Amino acid sequence: MEREKILAYILDSYPYPIAFVDCDHVIRYLNKRAEYHYYQERGYRDLIGKSIFACHQNPNSIEMIKSAVEKLKNHANEVFLHVNVRNERVYVVPVRDENGELIGYFERFEMNRQM
Predict the structure, then answer these.
(1) Quick check: helix, strand or coil at residue 33?
(2) CATH number (domain holding residue 92)
(3) Which residue from 81, 79, 75 is spatially nearest to 102, judged by alpha carbons?
(4) Which of these, 37, 54, 108, 114, has the minimum number of CB atoms within 10 Å of its CB?
(5) CA atoms of 90 and 69, how far apart (whole Å)
């Protein structure tokens, strides 16, 4: 089996949305959960190849994402964004090449458990 196919299966088995976005803020990949979230739940269509700002249009969201990506460019490991309506903590995670250069990012979701 091809490596790319194996990686897609792994990402599709992850129970949270994964949307990979390049450094120009263009959506390049959605796992199955992200497709369901954006297409079925939120009503978007054909996001691959479009700006992340097509679905994050609020000026505060745009500034939050741009600020987080600037931190990633300055070698942050991940950046906390907010707690969403599903009570999940949302982080932006860098994706780097073999030289450590930022090639993009994705949102990571985590249940927000109260102690």
Answers:
(1) helix
(2) 3.30.450.20
(3) 75
(4) 114
(5) 14
pLDDT of 114 reads 62
Distance, in Å, from the CA atom of 84 to the CA atom of 90, rounded to the nearest integer, reads 7
**Per the structure, how many domains does the chain have?**
1
Q: Is the pLDDT of residue 44 over 80?
A: yes
**57-84, pLDDT tens digit by residue?**
889 989 999 999 999 999 999 999 999 8
Q: Which long-range contacts (CB under 8 A, 24 or more apart) does 96-101 make?
A: 100/75
Short-list 42, 43, 15, 45, CA closest to 31? 15
- Strand bridging mode 88-96 / 27-30: unpaired
Residue 55 has pLDDT above 90, yes or no: no
Range of the domain at 18: 3-111
Q: Which residue has the tokens 């990571």?
A: 108
